[in-house]
UniProtKB/TrEMBL annotation:
It comes from the Eukaryota. This is acetylornithine transaminase. Keywords: Amino-acid biosynthesis, Aminotransferase, Pyridoxal phosphate, Transferase. It is found in: Mitochondrion. It is an enzyme of class 2 (transferase). Pathway: Amino-acid biosynthesis; L-arginine biosynthesis; N(2)-acetyl-L-ornithine from L-glutamate: step 4/4. The lineage of its organism: Eukaryota, Sar, Stramenopiles, Oomycota, Peronosporomycetes. It comes from Globisporangium ultimum (strain ATCC 200006 / CBS 805.95 / DAOM BR144). GO terms for biological process: L-arginine biosynthetic process.
Length: 447
């Protein structure tokens, strides 16, 4: 009895000692974690650096902590007007109340089941996309590059079925994309992308892909044939400097695709979902595509991609020919339903058109005022959109840094173009601030 009691006392003492050490260790770990984060130090030490930020970050240790609407706030409490929306992602801005509530509500239910089972949100999202487009079926994935990979594979499957037991069997695998275009950084999407400096290290790439001159239908004719499976085109090239396709060019692409039994594939990862003033960018043109890819703003900052296809394409996709673990995630699709519902609203889109025209006119005023410094202002075809290219005669890196120092976040597209792709909720006062900031910079000979 005495021995047992002594053993219990010794055991309790040991446990208290162990717990004390654990608590002390946790305290020390928490104290270490509470030390201020130095962004550049952490990035250089712990992260693989894949982005060139030299022309973006005027302050190397700028650290954003939260956002509201079209504004971001840093660790020092400073406010910044976000006029890049995470590269055309945050269409509703930051911390939108409906977006947040959808996320909270969905998080209380189910986050993941795999695509072997049904959940409500992706089914609803698919129906909404189909009901409000010219397409018949949807495949969900996780990003823009993955959406374009899916579109590439679906087009290959369609071409294979179309040419089965014909002289073209196994030979209809070529694609046309365009100089200035950007479709992603994975295998097929990188091959479709034109930028040489991001392609060279990965040669040889996927065979059979030709890059034609954008808005030059005669050059397209040099590359297209009955071996062409599809043409990938952005109605407005984003990385290419906010460069819109002309109506004539889009109509001729459709005609050539029909002539050669090829699919017209519109990449709307960046220009879709309200950015051009219409729900989809191709709706500003008198064409009906066969496939469309979406991503960036669809879930308002959460990772999602979508491939929308005509029935003739969907019929060629069989079980196992493509798939994804996380695509159609119920939590993200629930948020996307809320985002899409708000962007689809007629008044919302009319406001985007109005603000887009106001922005373009303000920037054209700067072009008139500084013709030796501003080369061109480009905007989408149609009634107006919050997607404008401000091309200068010199590299715009200094302009981007100057604007950041004044609390305005803008980004470039190429060396000489500022890409205006703000949250779709900006107002005229915000636009006035951006135009004034650029006006001041140009007056001060920043470039």
């Amino acid at each position: 009895m005495l021995a047992a009691a002594a053993l219990r006392r010794a055991t309790a003492k040991s446990l208290r000692s162990t717990a004390s050490r654990h608590v002390g260790g946790a305290t020390r770990s928490m104290a270490a974690a509470e030390r201020p984060i130095v962004p550049e130090e952490y990035e250089n030490k712990y992260m693989v650096k894949t982005y060139n930020t030299d022309g973006v970050r005027g302050e190397p240790n700028l650290l954003f902590t939260h956002g509201k609407g079209q504004y971001l706030f840093d660790a020092q409490g400073r406010q910044f007007l976000d006029f890049c929306a995470g590269i055309a992602v945050s269409g509703l801005g930051h911390s939108d109340a409906d977006w947040y509530q959808a996320l909270v509500d969905a998080g209380k239910n189910v986050c993941h089941t795999s695509n072997l089972f049904h959940t409500k949100a992706p089914l609803e999202l698919a129906k909404t996309l189909v009901d409000n487009s010219c397409f018949d079926k949807v495949f969900f994935c996780n990003s823009g590059t993955e959406a374009n990979e899916g579109a590439y594979k679906f087009a290959r499957l369609y071409a294979n079925r179309l040419t089965k037991d014909t002289p073209l069997e196994g030979k209809k695998y070529e694609f046309i994309s365009f100089k200035g275009g950007f479709h992603g950084r994975t295998a097929a999407s990188l091959s479709l992308t034109y930028k040489p400096y991001i392609r060279e290290a990965f040669m040889p790439l996927v065979p059979g892909i030709h890059h034609a001159e954008f808005n030059n239908i005669e050059d397209v004719k040099k590359h297209i044939s009955d071996r062409t499976a599809g043409i990938f085109v952005e109605p407005v090239q984003g990385e290419g400097g906010v460069n819109p396709a002309t109506p004539e060019f889009m109509r001729e692409l459709r005609r050539l695709c029909d002539k050669h039994n090829a699919l017209l594939i519109v990449d709307e990862v960046q220009c879709g979902l309200g950015r051009t003033g219409k729900l989809f960018g191709h709706q500003n043109y008198d064409v009906t595509p066969d496939i469309m890819t979406l991503a960036k703003p669809l879930a308002g900052g959460l990772p999602i991609g979508a491939v929308l296809v005509a029935n003739k394409v969907a019929a060629c996709v069989t079980a196992g020919s493509h798939g994804t673990t996380f695509g159609g995630n119920p939590l993200i699709c629930a948020v996307a339903n809320t985002v899409l519902g708000k962007i689809m609203d007629e008044d919302f889109l009319l406001n985007v058109q109005k603000r887009g025209r106001y922005l373009a006119n303000g920037l054209k005023g700067l072009q008139d005022k500084y013709p030796e410094k501003v080369h061109e202002v480009r905007e989408p075809v149609g009634p107006g959109g919050l997607f404008v290219g401000f091309e200068c005669t010199k590299p715009v890196g200094p302009l981007v840094k100057y604007a950041l120092s004044k609390g305005v976040m803008i980004i470039s597209a190429g060396e000489k173009t500022i890409r205006m792709c703000p949250p779709l909720v900006v107002n005229e006062e915000d636009i006035d601030l951006v135009v004034k900031t650029l006006d001041d910079a140009l007056a001060e000979d920043v470039i």
